[in-house]
Amino acid sequence: MAEKRKLLQRYMQCLNEMQDELRRKELAKKMETLEKLQCELARRQEQRVAQGGGQMGKSERRQYLKDKLKSYQKTLKGLLCELARREAFANGERGRVSESDNLPHPLKLDEFTVAFRYVGEDGRELLMAALAARRCAYVPYSKFKVGAAFRAKCGQIYSGCNIENAAFTPGNCAERCALAKGVSEGEKRYTAGAVVAYHPDGFTTPCGVCRQFIREFATRDFPIYIAKAPPPEQEGCIPAIDDDEEVLVTSAYNLLPHSFSAYE
Ligand SMILES: [Zn+2]
């Protein structure tokens, strides 16, 4: 019996070592991709300066370079944040426990924008679930369709759409619809969320009531991905979200920093 236990322990140890090795390889691959992207950004920057430099005055060129540098820094910051998220995810001992675990500042995540192609697989999956739910939106009055999706701690995704009412006040938002579905199934902890709607001027973020509602189930800060749905004339087109489309990656705490959280 003791020998069998020893053998089992040795097997478990081997298994753990193999898993560690796999994670290390995965991270090294991601770092390599990031370095390639940095090189590509630098190359493009040089190319643009070479193209536009001839017609610009000295101060104009300086401003142009400053603006470009700022935008690249923003992209790079977004990529680094996304990498930190993915690293944390890869390091998660129990799989999809929390996308914010192991981050340098676990209490509050950074807010940034990043192209859809650079959003992690999990974020993209949530955005697509929100987009699918948005198709069911019941909006005969405003015609403003919203979709939302939240991932529960167990990994299950709950999605919802906005539902209007002729009497107006009984209407419900997509975020609360999605969370209510999860909570009514016994899920009280969530690790990420996504909201999708179309407004020509920019991102559609959750309303005040929904922010407080989300905060109720955010025992830790978690990322919330916000993307623009395709314009009405392009609905149903593939891909539903273009790879270059900007995604706002914010968080439950960022959306409502001074929230009401408990009586005690
Ligand atoms: Zn709302």
Automatic annotation (TrEMBL):
<dbReference type="GO" id="GO:0042802">
    <property type="term" value="F:identical protein binding"/>
</dbReference>
<dbReference type="GO" id="GO:0072527">
    <property type="term" value="P:pyrimidine-containing compound metabolic process"/>
</dbReference>
<keyword id="KW-0479">Metal-binding</keyword>
<keyword id="KW-0175">Coiled coil</keyword>
<dbReference type="Pfam" id="PF00383">
    <property type="entry name" value="dCMP_cyt_deam_1"/>
</dbReference>
<feature type="binding site">
    <location>
        <position position="210"/>
    </location>
    <ligand>
        <name>Zn(2+)</name>
    </ligand>
</feature>
<keyword id="KW-0378">Hydrolase</keyword>
<protein>
    <recommendedName>
        <fullName>cytidine deaminase</fullName>
        <ecNumber>3.5.4.5</ecNumber>
    </recommendedName>
</protein>
<feature type="binding site">
    <location>
        <begin position="162"/>
        <end position="164"/>
    </location>
    <ligand>
        <name>substrate</name>
    </ligand>
</feature>
<dbReference type="GO" id="GO:0008270">
    <property type="term" value="F:zinc ion binding"/>
</dbReference>
<keyword id="KW-0862">Zinc</keyword>
<feature type="binding site">
    <location>
        <position position="207"/>
    </location>
    <ligand>
        <name>Zn(2+)</name>
    </ligand>
</feature>
<dbReference type="InterPro" id="IPR050202">
    <property type="entry name" value="Cyt/Deoxycyt_deaminase"/>
</dbReference>
<comment type="function">
    <text>This enzyme scavenges exogenous and endogenous cytidine and 2'-deoxycytidine for UMP synthesis.</text>
</comment>
<dbReference type="InterPro" id="IPR002125">
    <property type="entry name" value="CMP_dCMP_dom"/>
</dbReference>
<comment type="similarity">
    <text>Belongs to the cytidine and deoxycytidylate deaminase family.</text>
</comment>
<feature type="active site" description="Proton donor">
    <location>
        <position position="175"/>
    </location>
</feature>
<dbReference type="InterPro" id="IPR016192">
    <property type="entry name" value="APOBEC/CMP_deaminase_Zn-bd"/>
</dbReference>
<feature type="domain" description="CMP/dCMP-type deaminase">
    <location>
        <begin position="121"/>
        <end position="240"/>
    </location>
</feature>
<dbReference type="GO" id="GO:0004126">
    <property type="term" value="F:cytidine deaminase activity"/>
</dbReference>
<feature type="binding site">
    <location>
        <position position="173"/>
    </location>
    <ligand>
        <name>Zn(2+)</name>
    </ligand>
</feature>
<dbReference type="GO" id="GO:0055086">
    <property type="term" value="P:nucleobase-containing small molecule metabolic process"/>
</dbReference>
<feature type="coiled-coil region">
    <location>
        <begin position="1"/>
        <end position="47"/>
    </location>
</feature>
<dbReference type="GO" id="GO:0005829">
    <property type="term" value="C:cytosol"/>
</dbReference>
<dbReference type="InterPro" id="IPR016193">
    <property type="entry name" value="Cytidine_deaminase-like"/>
</dbReference>
<dbReference type="InterPro" id="IPR006262">
    <property type="entry name" value="Cyt_deam_tetra"/>
</dbReference>
